[in-house]
Amino acid sequence: MIRNYFITALRNIKRSTIHSLINIIGLAIGVALFIIIALYVKHELSFDNFQKDKEQIYRLELGNADNSSLFLTSAMGIDVGQFAEVEKMVRLKYLDNVLISNNENTFKIPNLYLADSSVWDIFTFNFILGTPETALDDPFKIVLTESTAKQIFGNESPINQIIKSNTGLEFKVSGIIKDVEHSHLTIDAIGSLNLLGVLYGKERLNNHNTTQYFTYLRLVPGSNIKELEAKISDFYIKMFPEWLADEIVFTLRNLSDAYFYKTTRLTISGIKSGNQKAVKIFIAIGIFIIFIACINFINLTTARAASRAKEVGLRKVVGGMKRNLVIQFLSESMLISLIAFVLAITLVQLCIPIFNNLILTNISFSTLLNFKALLIMVSGMLAIGIISGIYPAFYLTAFNPVHVLKGEITKGKKAALFRKILIVVQFTISVALIICTITVNKQLNFLKNKDLGFNQDLVVALELNTTLRNTKEAFKENLLKYPTIKKASYSMTIPGQGSNFEGFDFNSDGNSTTIQVHTIDPDYLNLFEIELISGRNFDWDKQGDKKQKIILNERAVKEAGLTLEIAAGTIFHRDSWYISALPSKECEIIGIVKDFHFTSLHAEIGPLGMTWNDDWFGYINIKISPEDIPSTLKIIQKEWEKICPSIPFEYTFIDQAFDKMYKSEERLAKFFKYFSILAIFIAALGLFGMSAFIAESRTKEIGIRKVLGSSVNKILIHLSSEFAIWVFIANLIAIPIAYYGMNKWLQGFAYKIHLTIDIFILSAIFSFLIAIITVSFHSLKVANKNPVSSLRYE
Question: Positive or negative CA dihedral for 116, 121, 125, 129?
């Protein structure tokens, strides 16, 4: 019996080749896209899953009351003995691009963490060589990941080997761990946090004034998180100035959620962060796409009911039971599903590299190569086959065999209405995706092209190392000798990376505010063309400007309760809660600059202060001429290699660095663009099949119309108008839904586009064009047919 069902199903699929191909291709593309999205979602949601007891591990975060700004915690962490809920604590200090040498060769460790020895008790690391008990029992020991050790030592045994930092410190390799993959922490090496105590004194590690540390806690199972947050806040809040104590909040974030929440406004390359909103959008799109593919299947199968009515009638007349007929049609449905599944898996394998390249991720086809995954997918496809085929199966078997064999087949108004509803649903989803695609791309273009308040074009930034810091004046002087190098200036960070945070108590009226502090030299404002609207700039000839004067932006002046007229010349006292780039307690405001975007457009321009402090410079910014940029870069490299020949030359264009801040939006725009095209293609494929059925079923009507004098154009308009009405209804439904969704998404930006009517008009025009072009093929074919052949048998 099963063999008979299978053979009959194959014959029916072969008999209706075009119909079957449309079904298989549409379903295969839909399933392939769904699988790729599912793999991506699984990849995003599985960060840190390898960590044992992750439900007990929490990151301690220090932020303001509404969590709009998050800061790194202080060096002292917390006193474990004060809280019964806390089993262990580890502090991590992040260092990036640390240069080390092994004999004559210099290497860069991109992501180095200094940690307490308790790091092995909290996080799961797999030791290949060495033991966790002794790995960090000395300040000058270091643990390398497997790939870092391979890079430095090749095939030599790395254990007990000595590596030297560019500052002259020597470290013994005490352990090798497996590469830390799929963690929100990007780790290449782990050193001892006690090193800072040796170099700067033990008080450095027991000081709440020293921030920029990550703190992780292992809690006792069943701990009440809210109560513990309150206890930690109550215990430590008194260590902060009164004005700041009212603003900050301690939060405990479970390790499972760490990937989706950035810990600070500072850009830290060693911390990976995902976009939870984007993941939810991807899930929705995946469901919509598989839904569109299933709708196609249902629509095309029910549309063919009339052509198979006699088959059903004959089967019933010769004794076919309804149950057997339902099984037969479901068998066909499931067979098409399985054929589509095989094609879908092939498409997934071919498309994963393209998908990874498009949205800069790293999903793998091998994730599917296990019994559990295959069982879920095959079961899912059979379920799709049953769900998609169950309505057509019962619809077909409901025909009265007597009426069918007499040719008295009803038009099936309910079935026709159902198909129309499904087409409207398909195009509603497609129109919504078009609106989202246009909106995301417009917002991305807005972010990339908005006036930032400074000129970032043709500015090259080089990160300073110890050697370059000691010879910075000579390096700058040598660069400016070349005509293609226009200007050069030193600064602590580059735009987009954020800065430190300070609290200031202004003498003018006792107002206190927290501002970002950026260290620059007197050439900085001129190089970036930042407008000075009041007061003066730092002066090379006035050494008293160093570490004692500050330039504020408009926002800082406003939040300090000052005005532009009186701000310049105001003296204020700096609060001592933070070890600062501005060591002077008493500081004078000497100038005010127009607000400019120092961080991304996700957040509003915040209060910013700029000081002149040579000790805190981390970058040199170089303004170059647009003529022959490659030659100018070679000049800079040559001057670099004169001073630090053993250190690799690396540079960043400021405009490119700023664009990187919108990587998530760029990825989302690409995703919407390509997946919307494919979703629309699936919907159009279904519409193509439906238009073929409708055109065929109305052949007699069209023949009569032509005999009565209707032109081809009138017939074409008549046939297309019904589809146009469906698409119009779809637009009416999709527009408010998409408006609501995109409006919610845009709320994540401080600076954003408005959802103007042109977006919705453009999407409507595009959807109508797709529908009309799709149905025109069959409509033209039938409209141009000789009416004699249409009415021959009437």
Answer: positive
Question: Which pLDDT score, from 0 to 100, does residue 207 have?
Answer: 64
Concatenated DSSP letters of 91-154: EEEEEEEEEEEETTEEEEEEEEEEE-TTHHHHS---EEES-HHHHTSSTTEEEEEHHHHHHHHT
Rounded CA-CA distance 49/179 in Å is 15
Angle subtended by helix axes 309-317 and 371-397, to nearest 10: 80
Three-state DSSP state, 218? strand
Is residue 396 within 8 A of residue 308, CB to CB? The reply is yes
Radius of gyration over alpha carbons of the chain, in Å?
34
Contact (CB, 8 A) for 469 and 617: yes
Cα atoms found within 13 Å of the Cα of residue 588, Cβ hemisphere only = 11
Q: What is the pLDDT of residues 731-788, one digit of tens each?
A: 999 999 999 999 998 988 889 999 999 999 999 999 988 888 888 776 777 666 666 5
pLDDT band of residue 255 (cuts 50, 70, 90) is very high
Q: Please answer whether residues 378 and 344 qualify as being in contact, where contact means their C-beta atoms are separated by less than 8 angstroms.
A: no
What is the C-alpha to C-alpha distance for residues 345 and 340, in angstroms, rounded to an integer?
A: 9
Q: Dig out the tokens for 450 from the structure.
A: 């908005």
- Write the CA distances from 282 to 26, 353, 439, 667, 672, integer angstroms: 19, 18, 16, 11, 9
Q: Which residue has the tokens 């806690």?
A: 217
Q: Is residue 475 exposed (0-12), middle (13-18) or buried (19+ Cβ within 10 Å)?
A: buried
Angle 13-14-18 (CA atoms, 0-180°, nearest 5)? 80
Phi, psi (rounded to 5 degrees) for 608: -135, 140
The angle subtended at Cα 504 by Cα 529 and Cα 591, nearest 5°, is 30
Higher-confidence residue of 360 and 309: namely 360
Please tell me what DSSP assigns to residue 615. Answer: G
Helices (H) and strands (E) in the chain, counts: 27, 22
pLDDT in tens, 549-581: 999 999 999 888 888 888 888 887 766 555 556
739 vs 654: CA distance, rounded Å: 34
Query: pLDDT averaged over the chain?
Result: 82
Chain centre to alpha carbon of residue 454: 27
Q: How many CB atoms lie within 10 A of CB 443?
A: 24
**CA proximity to 22, closest of 300, 278, 294:** 300
pLDDT higher than threshold 50 for residue 625: yes
Within 10 Å of residue 42's Cβ, how many Cβ atoms? 13
How many other CB atoms are there within 10 angstroms of residue 703's CB atom?
A: 20
Instruction: Report H helices in 201-246.
Output: 225-236, 242-245
CB 623 within 8 A of CB 483: no
Cα separation, 249 vs 68, whole angstroms: 11
Place of tokens 């195009």: 427
Is there a contact between 496 and 268 (Cβ–Cβ < 8 Å)?
no
Q: What is the pLDDT of residues 283-335, one digit of tens each?
A: 988 898 888 888 887 777 766 655 666 666 666 666 566 677 777 777 777 88
Between 306 and 194, residue with greater pLDDT: 194
**Cα end-to-end span (Å), the chain:** 41
Neighbours of 788 (CB within 10 A): 10
Q: What's 80's DSSP letter?
A: G
pLDDT at 793: 43
3-state DSSP percent of the chain in helix, strand and coil, to 5: 55, 20, 30
